């Protein structure tokens, strides 16, 4: 018989170099224990566990103070996300707990000497100039020439922050229509100098005096056409005007305004609107290749919307007209929760099936307490291009009657005519093409006058 040999189990150790600052982190833990600082104890232990786990998963991944700085950044970001969720759930007590932990993490972070975004950008510009490449420099060439160990040691900058700087300096934007490849914090891939802050309350768009929503709960009622021609009508009254297309999945503004190309990015990391016919415009359509479908879920849509709302450099605007997607879903609720809106315009046709959804849209605005300026009845009557005869194709004044029943002002009844359709398809809005002679253009100009007067009246009454 063979004798069974039992060998004792051997302990396996994972050896990894810790960041030099970890000695001070342990001292901070001891100080927190002596002083009875429970928040400090919990947070510092979480940092130590995160460092250990990171180095087990990938040895030496957090072996420098810069690596620790990046890890602390990610821990802060997680807590900021939690704060957003707690505020939505009206749990301010839990949000305060996360804020207290962020203070501890930021105190640890402040002990690590790290170059600022401006300092890193200066180093990157100097490095790119030294490459001696004429014209546009490919981002891949820059990154392939960098000696990363020397960069981290001499520039006091992590690889991630240097890559972000190269994108800023070259004006590059990383973007994917696939949800798997995206950062949930920055789905539009805008190069940033600043750390993204959570939006915890309603706010204005910087330098914009009046914000108008053009909305319809039903698709196909001409909402985008109304939004563009309204914006142009306001511009022709002498107002500085912009139009923002927040339809993530089906943007129409690029076609209606005959605009294409990718927006530039400011030094601060904000998108610069494109411009045509005197008005500024921003749309998801400028950021996505025309034939590519965006396959995103709710959180990515919400974050992309936040970027379109608050990371665009509009300059000074009297009016920003926001072209909403159809329905009463994520985009509408996000705007209601995060944006200070001056008034909403509901667009409908006289058709019964459109009116059912228009009523839902009106109810939504009333629920979220966004003031309704009024209703626009679009395609109210068909105007024959040959004889100028009129026909009520979609019914007679159904939207007008529905609005009057609910005490809502009817701002305009707009015709359905071939010049509006042809102008939209050709990127030449009817208001701009023939503002003096066309009855359709006159109807939109009258709408712009009515909207500005109605908004002024509401603001005075408030």
Quick overview of this protein structure:
The chain has three domains: 22-109, Orthogonal Bundle (Hypothetical Protein Yqey, Chain: A, domain1), CATH 1.10.1510; 117-172, no CATH class; 208-461, Rossmann fold (3-Layer(aba) Sandwich), CATH 3.40.50.300.
Globally, the shape reads elongated
Q: In the CATH hierarchy, what is the architecture of the largest domain at level 2?
A: 3-Layer(aba) Sandwich
Q: What is the count of structural domains?
A: 3
Largest sheet: 8 strands, mixed
Enumerate the spans where pLDDT stays under 50 for 5 or more consecutive residues: 174-183
Structural class: alpha/beta
Cα separation of the termini:
99 Å
Order of SSEs? HHHHHHHHEHEHEEHEHEHEEEHEHHH
The portion of residues assigned to helices is 40-55%
The CATH class of the largest domain is identified as Alpha Beta
Question: Going by CATH, what is the homologous superfamily of the largest domain?
Answer: P-loop containing nucleotide triphosphate hydrolases
* CATH topology grouping of the largest domain: Rossmann fold
Strand fraction: 5-15%
Rounded to an integer in angstroms, the radius of gyration calculated over CA atoms is: 28 Å
Number of strands: 10
Number of helices: 17
Strand order, largest beta sheet: 3-4-2-5-1-6-7-10
Subcellular location: Mitochondrion
Family: Belongs to the Mrp/NBP35 ATP-binding proteins family.
GO molecular function, one term: 4 iron, 4 sulfur cluster binding
Pfam family, one: ParA
């Amino acid at each position: 018989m063979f004798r069974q040999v039992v060998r004792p189990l051997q302990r396996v150790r994972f050896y990894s170099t810790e960041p030099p600052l970890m000695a001070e982190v342990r001292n901070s833990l001891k100080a927190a224990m002596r002083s009875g600082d429970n928040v400090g104890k919990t947070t510092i232990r979480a940092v130590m566990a995160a460092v250990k786990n990171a180095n087990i998963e990938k040895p030496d991944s957090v072996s420098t103070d810069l690596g620790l700085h990046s890890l602390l950044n990610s821990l802060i970001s997680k807590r900021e996300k939690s704060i957003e969720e707690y505020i939505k759930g009206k749990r301010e007590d839990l949000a305060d707990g996360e804020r207290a932990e962020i203070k501890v993490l930021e105190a640890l972070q402040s002990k690590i000497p790290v170059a600022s975004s401006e300092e890193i950008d200066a180093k990157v510009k100097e490095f790119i100039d030294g490459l001696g490449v004429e014209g546009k420099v490919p981002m891949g060439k820059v990154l392939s020439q960098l000696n990363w160990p020397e960069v981290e040691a001499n520039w006091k900058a992590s690889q991630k922050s240097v890559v972000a700087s190269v994108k800023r300096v070259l004006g590059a934007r990383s973007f994917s229509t696939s949800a798997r490849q995206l950062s949930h914090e920055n789905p539009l891939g805008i190069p940033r100098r600043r750390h993204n802050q959570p939006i915890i309350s309603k706010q204005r768009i910087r330098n914009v005096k009046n914000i108008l929503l053009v909305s319809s709960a039903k698709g196909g009622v001409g909402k985008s056409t109304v939004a563009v021609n309204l914006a142009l009508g306001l511009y022709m009254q002498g107002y500085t005007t912009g139009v923002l297309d927040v339809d993530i999945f089906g943007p129409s503004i690029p076609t209606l305004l005959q605009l294409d190309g990718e927006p530039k990015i400011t030094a601060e990391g904000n998108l610069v609107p494109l411009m045509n016919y005197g008005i500024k415009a921003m749309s998801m359509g400028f950021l996505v290749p025309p034939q590519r479908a965006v396959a995103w879920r709710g959180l990515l849509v919400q974050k992309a919307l936040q970027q379109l709302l608050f990371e665009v450099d509009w300059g000074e605007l009297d009016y920003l007209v926001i072209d909403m997607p159809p329905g009463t879903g994520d985009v509408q609720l996000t705007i209601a929760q995060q944006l200070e809106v001056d008034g909403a315009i509901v667009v409908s046709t006289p058709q019964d099936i459109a009116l059912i959804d228009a009523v839902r849209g009106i109810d939504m605005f009333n629920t979220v307490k966004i003031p309704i300026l009024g209703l626009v009845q679009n395609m109210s009557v068909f105007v024959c291009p040959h004889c100028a005869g009129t026909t009520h194709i979609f019914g007679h004044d159904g939207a007008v009657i529905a609005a009057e029943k609910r005490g809502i002002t009817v701002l305009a009844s707009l015709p359905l005519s071939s010049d509006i359709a042809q102008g939209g398809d050709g990127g030449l809005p009817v208001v701009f093409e023939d503002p003096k002679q066309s009855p359709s253009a006159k109807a939109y100009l009258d709408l712009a006058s009515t909207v500005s007067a109605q908004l002024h009246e509401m603001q005075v009454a408030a």
